[in-house]
Amino acid sequence: MCAILILFPFVVLASNDPVIIGSKKFTESYVLGEIATRALHDAGIPAEHRQGMGGTIILWEALRTGQIDVYPEYTGTIAQEILRNGRPMTPNEIRNALAKFGVGMTESLGFNNTYALVMRRSAAKRLGIHTISDLQKHPDLRLGLTHEFLGREDGWSRLRERYALPQRNVTGIDHALGYSALASGEIDVKDAYSTDARIEQNDLVTLEDDRNFFPKYEAIFLYRLSLPQSAIAVLRRLEATLDERRMMRLNAEAERTKNYTKAADSYFAERSAGNAASEESLARKEARWILRHLQLTGLSLLLAVILGVPLGIVASRGGPLGHGILAFAGIVQTIPSLALLALLVPLPFFGISARTAIAALFLYGLLPIVRNTASGLQDIPRSLRESAIALGLSPAARLCEIYLPMASRSILSGIKTSAVINVGTATLAALIGAGGLGEPILSGLNLNDHATILEGAIPAALLALAVQGLFDLLDRVLIPRGLRL
């Protein structure tokens, strides 16, 4: 019965009726994801956009395993990073190779968004740098590169070999934060996308790829071949509808308005009017984020209580088993939350989903509950235990009627600590498309927009305070009056 209770929330969240669209953690991917979502909605097909789910491999694994149905990608990335083919591939070769994984590919959306290295125009002019080869003369330049670019087959390692670049001061940095670091002079060079609006906005210069290292990165949509033909047909209608300049304008619109939906609406402006009416209000978005956040934290806390209190009871009795339980809960707590999510994603049944986020939060919530339950029971005076035995009460009656009420203050304190921790940690769930208040935080980081970050950070902080206040009220209801005094 307990196993059914534990698995039930995961099964409930497993159903994905709408077409699930993923996107990477940079502006253009967000915008293309919104365009696909809007196109499907306009065709009467339910769709849900999970924004900023991470890098290439995370999105590819999510698509391959059925956690998402569609995401925007680039042909060069598919050949180099997904298929790991060392030579240039034709679209038909890529399409045939993807079909073996049950994945299809649209034709090009109409533009090539290749990788590039960029610098501040003033610095490039002062140092006489026009091409990537010119970097050879300046070994002291500081490079800030995205973590994905640092690890890609067509990224920094191979680029450095091809151009014999001498730079060793290379830092991994978020794509959006890299532009701020470049503007402030903390770094001198960063990787970028050729259609990125910030290149022009920040008066940056793109270094010429004079040895033709980067392949073509034609933008396309990858989709599961099991998708209904009606949904695939909608995606195919987006082919050849964007060029580089138009994509740059859409990216600039997203950066200017701090709103990916408005940028996507601009794409459809030529075809229909009144697009602004479809925009979701901030109040509705906040309600959606908070509801999902409460679902993630509530279900994970429920599971932690269902399992943590019994484990704490066992741990209170000491011995190898009790020490092992406390050690396991302690070890889990030491694993960084982002690392725990990454460890759970490849496991069967989890993947890129809310199940993974709930499982991670559940594991994080165990230690305070287990430890406080065990310590609360161990602190019961020996004389009281002997009195309970002398009254002839059964072990179950002693536990339920005397020991647990006596330890209730400590147990509830552990549950409260677990709940508050989970509210804060649940913001990371947005990294794997599980939603919640982490969505605006990640979006704000990408846009370098403090107001958007606060749309998630402030409600998360207020939610943590509300949870703490709720448990303070529960103290008065659940803890015996004598123990409160």
Plain-language structure description:
The protein is of the alpha/beta class and 485 residues long. It has 3 domains: 18-112 and 217-278, Periplasmic binding protein-like II (D-Maltodextrin-Binding Protein, domain 2), CATH 3.40.190.10; 115-206, Osmoprotection protein (prox), domain 2 (D-Maltodextrin-Binding Protein, domain 2, 3-Layer(aba) Sandwich); 282-484, MetI-like (MetI-like fold, Orthogonal Bundle), CATH 1.10.3720. It has helices at residues 2-13, 27-42, 56-64, 75-82, 91-99, 121-127, 147-151, 156-163, 175-184, 197-201, 229-236, 244-257, 260-268, 282-315, 319-334, 337-344, 354-378, 382-390, 395-425, 438-447, 450-478, 481-484, and strands spanning 19-22, 47-50, 70-74, 103-105, 115-120, 143-145, 170-172, 189-193, 204-206, 219-224. The strands form 3 sheets. A 5-stranded mixed sheet has the order 7-6-8-5-9. α2 links the parallel β1 and β2 (47-50). The chain starts with a helix and ends with a helix.
